[in-house]
Amino acid sequence: LVATQFTIYLSLLAFLGGALVGAPLAIFKITGHRALVAIATGWIWFFQSTPLLMLLFLSGLGVPRLFGVDVNPWVAAMISLTLYSGAYLADVWRGALESVGQGQWEGARALGLSFWQSLRRVILPQAIRIALAPTVGFMVQIIKGTSLAYIIGFRDLMAIGKRWANAPVAGTEPF
Fold first, then answer.
1. What does the pLDDT read at residue 151?
2. Largest alpha-carbon pair distance within the chain?
């Protein structure tokens, strides 16, 4: 039960952190400003191209070794999962925002709403319904991704279960 708590806490923190990173990136992508679009595109490309296992390895073992600092496995796992989930959530939410019909944007502009007012009052309520299913689906990916944190010494449900499954028990052989 303790290990399950760690998995749930890490998953929730990674999802919330990813949401805080992903929401601005999704908005950057739809603004049309070249600099913001370039920043968001580069961020998303980099962190979607880097495997989660590599991010965990670098944040939990590489950076501490390189700079001679001690990084808590919780912090390293949370940073890696936040960066990873932020990139994917940004793309999911950008897709949901862009899937709302162009006529909705034009209608909001015709009413005299600014970009931010249009986004908040017209586009977001429609995009949330579109984004709900893929967001929940990605949350499952985050939960599964927490099991990779064993590489940096984070003990979650899967790591402890694996240790128990391989422990010698009197009269049995390990799996």
1. 72
2. 77
Residue type, 114: S
Q: How far apart are CA 143 and CA 146, in angstroms?
A: 5
11 C-beta neighbours (distance < 10 Å), count: 21
What is the spatial distance between Cα 17 and Cα 38, in angstroms, rounded to a whole number? 22
Q: What local confidence, expressed as pLDDT, does residue 175 receive?
A: 53
Pair 25, 40: CB distance under 8 Å: yes
Whether 130 contacts 37, CB under 8 Å: no
What is the C-alpha separation between 173 and 175, in angstroms, rounded? 7
| Distance from C-alpha of 18 to C-alpha of 81, rounded to nearest angstrom | 8
Sign of CA dihedral 57, 163, 141, 125: negative
The angle at the Cα of 61, spanning 90 to 145, to the nearest 5 degrees, equals 40
Q: What are the tens digits of pLDDT across the range 133-163?
A: 999 999 999 988 888 877 776 655 555 566 5
Phi and psi at 11, nearest 5°, equal -65, -45
Distances (CA, A) of 89 to 57, 115, 136, 174: 22, 22, 10, 40
Q: How many CB atoms lie within 10 A of CB 43?
A: 20
